[in-house]
Amino acid sequence: MDTTTNAGTQALADHYKEILTLLGEDAQREGLLKTPLRVAKAMQVLTRGYNQDPEQVLRDALFHEDYNQMVIVKDIDFASLCEHHMLPFYGKVHIAYIPKGKITGLSKIARVVDIFSHRLQVQERMTQQIMECIQHTLEPMGVMVVIEANHMCMQMRGVEKQHSLTTTSAFSGAFNQAKTREEFMNLIK
């Protein structure tokens, strides 16, 4: 990400300066002078997924391979921003797919997670988006995605529950069979 200041970055910084003032802060105070620009640049990094195509990432490393057993990439770390409060949620993503003549580079699976997590999100939609992207692009026999996450909007505000974990899943094709889902869940434990 280019860290130079452009017109969009400066416009965001101007808004963050106004927000500081509305919160009762002195935006001219020494410790806050550069905060609006730093926050603007941080938000551009945290939402960079809007400018990336996850399907193209998979297609860039697409290989024909006669392999039809489960491929699992687990414990993919992610952090995202909840679209309801713009507070972080973070955790792990576990992904499996069963190829049908096409595979992709394993790092590309993690990049798909990175792209969808760098957008304002809800965990449920992100889970579905990752699954649909892999299903549509690789056309495998099936895909399953499980996400386990902690949500700062539950920890810092509202109910303030520090140790709650939210788990979501989405699956297609061969994973509609309970036995296949069970095999995946046993393998990611």
Could you characterize what this model shows?
The chain is an alpha+beta fold and 189 residues long. 41% of the residues lie in helices and 25% in strands. The chain has helices at residues 7-22, 35-46, 54-59, 106-117, 123-138, 152-155, 178-188; strands at residues 62-64, 71-82, 88-98, 102-104, 120-121, 142-151, 166-171. The protein has a five-stranded mixed sheet, with helices on both faces. The protein starts with 6 loop residues before the first helix and ends with a helix.
* Average residue-wise pLDDT: 95
Our estimate of the beta-strand percent is: 15-25%
What's the arrangement of strands in the largest beta sheet? 5-2-3-6-7
Strand elements, count: 7
What would you call the quaternary organization? single chain
Count of helical regions: 7
Shape: elongated
Percent of residues in helices:
40-55%
* Helical/strand content category: alpha+beta
Question: Which key phrases capture this entry?
Answer:
two-stranded antiparallel sheet, 5-stranded mixed sheet, 41% helix, alpha+beta, 189 residues, elongated, single chain
Short description:
The protein has 189 residues and is of the alpha+beta class. The chain has helices spanning 7-22, 35-46, 54-59, 106-117, 123-138, 152-155, 178-188; strands at 62-64, 71-82, 88-98, 102-104, 120-121, 142-151, 166-171. The protein is elongated and about 65 Å long.
